[in-house]
Amino acid sequence: MWKGATVIFGKSGTGKSFLTRLLLSGVIRKEAAVNLMFDMHSEYGWEAMKEGKQVSTVKGLRQLFPGQVMMYTLDPESTKRRGVRDAQELYLSYDQIEIEDLKLVASELGLSEAAMDNANILYNEYGKSWIVRLLNMTNEDIKMFCEAKQGHQGSISSLQRKLMRFDTLKYIRSTCPHNYIDQLIQDLAAGKNVIIEFGSQSNMLSYMLATNMITRRIHASYVKKADHFLQTKNPLDKPRQLVITIEEAHRFLDSSVVHQTIFGTIAREMRKYFVTLLVVDQRPSGIDNEVMSQIGTRVTCLLNDEKDIEAIFTGVSGGANLKSVLAKLDSKQQALILGHAVPMPVVVRTRPYDAQFYREIGCTDWEEMPNEEVYAAAKVAKADLGF
Ligand SMILES: Nc1ncnc2c1ncn2[C@@H]1O[C@H](COP(=O)(O)OP(=O)(O)OP(=O)(O)O)[C@@H](O)[C@H]1O
Ligand SMILES: [Mg+2]
């Protein structure tokens, strides 16, 4: 039974990240799936700031579930500085960047179509080593290449200049003898939840590039595993259900890129390969309509922008009435839930993410507890994953 992706929408400061932490706690506690979280602002794994009259911090998921959550980091110095001693370093290399990854960040990098065409020519010629080769080319080399291969000299030079920005990303290496992504895949297969911290590497180019590269490979491995399972039908071969969480999701699911990138593929193919998305975003109107129509459950905090509100209710019956419900939500810690996880749209107050929650999430009979919100959170996760 297909249930589709889950989304958490709301304008800045409405409590999306706090709610996401609560939901993931439920999924981890229930072992309903393994999670892979692309933690753009380093706020899910370890100590996050809590806004308020006094500045305080809240615990991250690794602190709540030390045995079940692992942290990887793309910026080891920053992660260490924050007091996390056992995060796994993660490096990516130029030879792991494919044309598809570039397409996703083409507008961040300011790459024209001509530059992308020439990237293809270089890739066809040099294969995986094309970026390293390009970065090392002199003007003369480029000229000779263009004469022989019908590339466009101006476009290749401009591509070279723009790709130099990758040099500023701390986690990119020319080559990497160790395959960190394979290691991450093994951890997920062993049932570990993985949080990838970006530290200072959280600009949009950096976030989108790493997130796409890693997800593409994980997805490929899941497709293989799922096909194998279909053949053998052996329950031992069944891949673990995986939930991938991304922030700023509209950047990955925008109409102009959604047909070319792995996140569009995952959103469209639904749960076929045991991978689903948990999408956290401030701008639902930026997400492709087709993807919106396939979302399983929408959890929506307060939104002000008319276009965003419109987008949430596309294709939802009773949308007009629900709009007024949405408009009356508190500015924090309240959400409207629509979709597969609930029999009818409901408004919930998100429970406080606090010391009491830490205690209760660790206690074994938490499902019996009279706290509707935790229960609702677990139900959203459960229903969406088809458990
Ligand atoms: N469940 C909760 N328990 C305790 N505090 C909360 C909760 N939800 C929200 N808050 C308060 O609201 C503040 C903002 O929440 P949060 O960081 O989750 O917003 P956000 O929607 O993710 O914002 P942004 O889009 O800017 O990332 C928190 O710092 C915290 O003070
Ligand atoms: Mg947030």
Describe this structure in words.
With 387 residues, the chain is of the alpha/beta class. The protein has helices at residues 16-30, 61-64, 76-81, 99-109, 113-126, 130-135, 139-149, 153-163, 180-189, 204-232, 250-253, 262-269, 289-293, 306-312, 319-327, 355-362, 372-385, and strands spanning 6-9, 34-39, 48-50, 56-58, 69-73, 88-89, 92-93, 172-173, 193-197, 242-247, 275-281, 297-300, 334-339, 346-349. It has two domains: 6-91 and 179-385, 3-Layer(aba) Sandwich (Rossmann fold); 94-172. It has 17 helices and 14 strands. A ten-stranded mixed beta sheet has the order 6-5-9-2-10-11-1-12-13-14, with helices on both faces. A two-stranded antiparallel sheet has the order 3-4. A two-stranded parallel ribbon has the order 7-8. The protein is globular and about 65 Å long. The N and C termini lie close together (10 Å). Residues 364-370 have low confidence and may be disordered. It binds adenosine-5'-triphosphate and magnesium ion. Adenosine-5'-triphosphate (ATP) binds next to helix 1. The site of magnesium ion has 2 residues, from helix 1.
List the helices and strands and how they pair.
Elements: E1 6-9, H1 16-30, E2 34-39, E3 48-50, E4 56-58, H2 61-64, E5 69-73, H3 76-81, E6 88-89, E7 92-93, H4 99-109, H5 113-126, H6 130-135, H7 139-149, H8 153-163, E8 172-173, H9 180-189, E9 193-197, H10 204-232, E10 242-247, H11 250-253, H12 262-269, E11 275-281, H13 289-293, E12 297-300, H14 306-312, H15 319-327, E13 334-339, E14 346-349, H16 355-362, H17 372-385
Parallel strand pairs: 1-11, 1-12, 2-9, 2-10, 5-6, 5-9, 7-8, 10-11
Antiparallel strand pairs: 3-4, 12-13, 13-14
Helix pairs in contact: 1-17, 4-5, 4-10, 5-8
The structure holds adenosine-5'-triphosphate (ATP) and magnesium ion (MG).
